[in-house]
Amino acid sequence: KEPAVTVVETLKDITLCEGEDAVFECRLSRETTQDAQWFLGDVPLQSNEMNEIRVQGTRHTLVLRKVTLEDCGPISFKVGQNTSAA
Asked: What is the pTM of this model?
């Protein structure tokens, strides 16, 4: 059984103008095979033409492309029992 993962670098609140890309980064205590999930409000996000989800070692990155006013809201990142929000 792998040891618990913790969030060591939390998400930061950002403000931008419509049409810009929003970039959120979170860093974990170690690499994990556990499922990590990004949310906008209560909606789970998937990698597609509007959202890019990247994992590089312990760093998890979410890019929301060309944001609109509808994209305004809480972003959260969940892995295991840990959550970080912005």
From this structure: 0.92
What mean pLDDT do residues 69-77 have?
Answer: 92
- What's the Cα-to-Cα distance from 71 to each of 4, 5, 15, 81, rounded to whole Å? 32, 29, 12, 26
Residue 15 lies in a domain: yes
String of DSSP letters for the chain: -PPPP-EEE--------TTSPEEEEEEESS---S-EEEEETTEEP--SSSEEEEEETTEEEEEE-S--GGG-S-EEEEETTEEEE-
Q: Is residue 14 part of a domain?
A: yes
Q: Give a yes or no: residue 2 inside a domain.
A: no
